[in-house]
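Q: Could you write out the predicted structure for this multi-component system? I'm mainly interested in how the pieces pack against one another.
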Amino acid sequence: MYGLIGRMLAVDGRREELLTTLLEGSAPMPGCRSYVIARDPGSDNGIWISEVWDSREQHKASLHLAHVQATIAKARPMIAGFAERFETEPKGGIGI
Amino acid sequence: MYGLIGRMLAVDGRREELLTTLLEGSAPMPGCRSYVIARDPGSDNGIWISEVWDSREQHKASLHLAHVQATIAKARPMIAGFAERFETEPKGGIGI
């Protein structure tokens, strides 16, 4: 499996709108086992996204899906940048 | 919901053994929606654990479950310490 844990930074005052956009856009994707969108309580504009995929290739391919591209286009003006980004190798657990 | 993202550090040379112990111990827990155990490919001894719970209280209560205490006792000699630790407020997504 392939995993990503990252923190996105919303434009000031637009975190809730960005969260809503990301949640609305989180339709099933081939090879995606888990995709958790969370508010970062330690900042005013952070959003944590934790992903588990069957493979790195399926994550990469997902970026070309029509509904993912539509969500990226809608979200882009609300994104100020990116902070932490960690790749992981999920081995198992609960809910994946 | 309540979330935790953290990186545990294994004693040198014991990461695989610690991963196996954590995976064997990951039985269902009340209020636990997701518990992902992953190798950190960026280090020799890091293990990422990403958790989603219905509430902070259910996470806290889980630490008193018999099978969780047994896993903690078995894992403790293999744990060198803890690195990053982030609390989150999961809002939704896929697989939770």
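A: Regarding packing and overall arrangement: The longest helix of chain A spans residues 15-24.
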